[in-house]
């Protein structure tokens, strides 16, 4: 039986990344559920805008709407707080009647430059709030980003490069005879000196990526010997597994937290006492 009590402090966090949408359902400051979906077309967002509660959302966007054990008697149009790095998707969501876009000026980090990605700022702020500063966030998503802040909550800076999936798809798409390697088929480390094309691609991308990440980690620790490092993003499990195999002592000191951005969003939303 579903409870008949309406939960007034329910809110949704939506991180719009370049590959997909990352969702969280909060009750006050408690993170209740997380899930990922594809980017959503305008027609589906229009449909969602007509839904009064989450129970009515299409399961492609809210996969739990048919599950009776989840209490979902939410107030009309639960608020969606959006942190987006994809302006075309942000624009589409603005037709939802109760939406708030989180912007850089709401993140209390110092020294941010105006075009810094809101996902990077929020993940760093969230990680710093939970584990302390200095903090370096490594986000292994569509792109791979490094974003660090010092003990004074000041942005140190970072770096952006193509992520694992993007490296594989670019190699497949921009060449005449290379196949596209799918990250989901990779289970263990490839041979370093490969004797077939798919493994040669895997070797090249994976070993240079790991070497590059290791170099950034060492540079971070030479700046901040006690600096913390947190890892998130769709490819974080794969990367952590490689570090465990190649550099177990580094792997052991990495904080693995897929929900970093939601902790950053919670900090900002909780300033607004209405949702406590
Ligand atoms: N179910 C999935 N769908 C898409 N990408 C996935 C999935 N599971 C893991 N990945 C990996 O996640 C990466 C994208 O990371 P993610 O953090 O989801 O991206 P973003 O936040 O930039 O949208 C892809 O390179 C892919 O290898
Ligand atoms: C670097 C990013 C593309 C990362 O996006 P993601 O891979 O997480 O989808 C995004 O944070 C962004 O568009 N940043 C703006 C440029 C910057 O941060 O300097
Ligand atoms: K991201």
From TrEMBL:
Which intervals of the chain form a coiled coil? none
The UniProt record gives the binding positions of substrate as 113, 117-120, 197
Bound cofactor: record note: A monovalent cation. Ammonium or potassium.
Question: What catalytic activity is recorded?
Answer: (R)-pantothenate + ATP = (R)-4'-phosphopantothenate + ADP + H(+)
Needed co-factor(s): K(+); NH4(+)
Q: What class of enzyme is it?
A: transferase
| Any one GO molecular-function label of the UniProt entry | metal ion binding
Q: Where does ATP bind?
A: 15-22, 142
The entry's family comment says: Belongs to the type III pantothenate kinase family.
Annotated PANTHER family: TYPE III PANTOTHENATE KINASE (PTHR34265)
- Cited HAMAP family: Pantothen_kinase_3
Protein name per Swiss-Prot or TrEMBL: Type III pantothenate kinase
Q: Which species is this record about?
A: Atlanticothrix silvestris CENA357
């Amino acid at each position: 039986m579903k409870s008949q009590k309406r939960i007034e402090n329910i809110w949704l966090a939506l991180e719009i990344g370049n590959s997909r949408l990352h969702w969280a359902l909060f009750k006050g400051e408690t993170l209740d559920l997380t899930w990922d979906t594809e980017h959503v077309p305008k027609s589906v967002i229009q449909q969602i805008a007509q839904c009064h509660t989450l129970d009515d959302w299409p399961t492609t966007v809210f996969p739990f709407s048919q599950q009776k054990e989840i209490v979902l008697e939410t107030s009309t149009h639960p608020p969606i707080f959006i942190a987006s790095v994809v302006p075309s998707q942000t624009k589409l969501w603005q037709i939802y009647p109760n939406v708030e876009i989180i912007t850089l000026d709401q993140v209390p980090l110092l020294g941010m430059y105006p075009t810094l990605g809101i996902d990077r700022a929020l993940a760093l702020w969230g990680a710093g709030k939970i584990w302390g500063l200095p903090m370096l966030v490594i986000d292994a998503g569509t792109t791979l980003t490094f974003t660090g802040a010092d003990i004074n909550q000041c942005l140190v800076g970072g770096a952006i490069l193509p992520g694992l999936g993007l490296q594989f798809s670019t190699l497949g798409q921009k060449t005449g005879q290379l196949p596209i390697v799918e990250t989901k088929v990779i289970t263990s480390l490839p041979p370093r000196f490969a004797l077939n094309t798919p493994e040669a691609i895997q070797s090249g991308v994976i070993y240079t990526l790991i070497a590059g990440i290791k170099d950034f980690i060492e540079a971070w620790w030479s700046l901040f010997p006690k600096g913390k490092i947190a890892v998130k993003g769709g490819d974080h499990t794969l990367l952590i597994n490689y570090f465990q195999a190649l550099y177990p002592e580094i792997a052991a000191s990495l904080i693995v937290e897929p929900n970093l951005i939601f902790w950053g969003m919670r900090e900002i939303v909780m300033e607004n006492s209405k949702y406590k």
